[in-house]
Amino acid sequence: MAHPPFVPYGPPRLPLDVSRRRADAFHAVLDGRRSVRQFSRDPVPRDLLERLVAAASTAPSGAHMQPWTFVAISDPGLKQRLREAAEAEERINYEKRFPKEWLEDLAPFGTDFVKEHLTDAPWVVVVFEQRHGWAPGGGTRKHYYVTESVGIAVGMFLAAATVAGLSTLVHTPSPMSFLSKVLARPSNESAFCVIPVGYPAEGARVPDLSRKRLDAVLVVDPPAAG
Question: Which tens digit of pLDDT belongs to each residue from 122-165?
Fold first, then answer.
């Protein structure tokens, strides 16, 4: 494998007040993000969705393998098939698979096995992780830190959608193997998550949540062990 050439890198260093303003503005946008389950059927143009995926694909990945595939679905018939398959699995989850504690934690959010967001949202994006790649001469090519890499890309996709004024929901039906079958994905891919993308429906409601305080999620200069 040929090594990529190294090129100079020197983005402009911003004045600290500019950096702080940008960081505050970005935080303000993301702090308004909520998971939406009630979507409008108003269309979102394909070029806007492509911009979100392009932003997500700037994510770092192990050995720059970029082990993700974003499968975007707008076809109503295919979305209906996904919904029917997802609801079949989720019904079993809620009735048999989910432990009592999980159901109790979910109860305040009012979720159930009905997944109307899969047919209402104009786009449903299914993100797949590529467990390995394919070598040019045949055989497989190892991918590294696949789950971590794909998780970062998904986070960047959600941030890009929020900045663009769109709403999303991270949906992880379990098990997810039906997604590979319905979408005819190759054998080296496994479904990672499902993300409906669009605008909130008129009258959409979300839980009134607060996030953890900064001092609950940030530790600065912890004392060394021992």
Answer: 999 999 999 999 988 889 999 999 999 999 999 999 999 999 99
Rounded CA-CA distance 124/111 in Å is 19
CB atoms within 10 A of CB 12: 5
Residue 47's SS3 state is helix
The number of angstroms, rounded, from the C-alpha of 59 to the middle of its chain's C-alpha atoms is 12
Which residues are paired to 190 by β-bridges?
129
DSSP state of 205: -
Ranges of each domain in the chain: 59-201
Query: What does the DSSP 8-state code read for residue 168?
Result: E
List the CATH code of the domain at 59-201. Answer: 3.40.109.10
Instruction: Say which residue the tokens 């935080």 belong to.
Output: 27
Does the bond joining 175 to the residue before it have cis omega, within 30 degrees of 0?
yes
Helix-strand-coil percent breakdown of the chain, rounded to 5? 40, 15, 45
Which residue, 189, 213, 121, 130, is CA-closest to 161?
Answer: 121
User: In 43-176, at which residue ranges do the beta strands (DSSP E only) sit?
Assistant: 68-73, 123-130, 132-134, 140-142, 167-168
Q: Which residue has the tokens 């079949």?
A: 88
Burial 39-62 (b: 16+ CB within 10 A, else e): bbeeebeeeebeebbebbeebebe
Kindly report the pTM of this predicted structure: 0.94
